[in-house]
Amino acid sequence: MSNARILSFGYDASVTAFFGRTSSDTILQHAHTLVAELVADRQLEGAMNRPIIFICHSLGGIVVKRALAYSASRTSKLIQHLHSVFVSTYAVLFLGTPHQGSDKAKLASTGRKVIDAMVPSKVLDSDGKLLEALQQGSETLQNITDMFAPLMKNFRIYFFWEQEKTDLGATFKYVVKEYSAAPILDDTERAGLPYDHRNMCKFESRTAPGYRLVVAALMTYALNAPSTITQRWVNATEMLKAKRAAEAAELMQ
What we know:
The protein is of the alpha/beta class. It is built from 9 helices and 6 strands; from the N terminus they run H-H-E-H-H-E-H-H-H-E-E-E-H-E-H.
């Protein structure tokens, strides 16, 4: 993949910044920023139509799901450039993303340690919003999943789960269990990685366990993406033109 552009997205993963007083709203803010920054970079680099493959670890996968749902809905004339992220996305690799939350009892007993394992900065969960949003059956996570589910048919999806328990101080536990990290869904791929939650996205070398599994998926997606995304842009362009024509016709009435 010598021609690949590799970009990273950093966000404030503190509890109050990530989930805030209304957790779903704050996740949406991160999603807005991800789409805006990605579109800006691709515009400046002349890469608006290039295929996109997202690699997401833990809560980053929640942000990406919300970002793709947001981008998919941006089809009005003045903001249709934001639709380009959805059109260009070919695949998403989720590593340890808590699609269905985490066990409520586990969060109650080891919540602080679980949070530290899931986010890159250590902060105080002053209002308990993160624990609430991460609980199994969380309304926040369910709403995002409901928005993302109809879009999944447009992407290649690969779910990865942790096969080693994470050191949470007094105990070792799975931060995101298999059922939450890798739901069994049609037309998706899934596999375990022999690491704990913190280290499942860190490969020490090309011979590290799990490395070839992830790289093989990336190479396959990179090979197949161009033709698919080229046709998707043709379809999207026709759809947007038809939408503009319909709007113009409505104004003439």
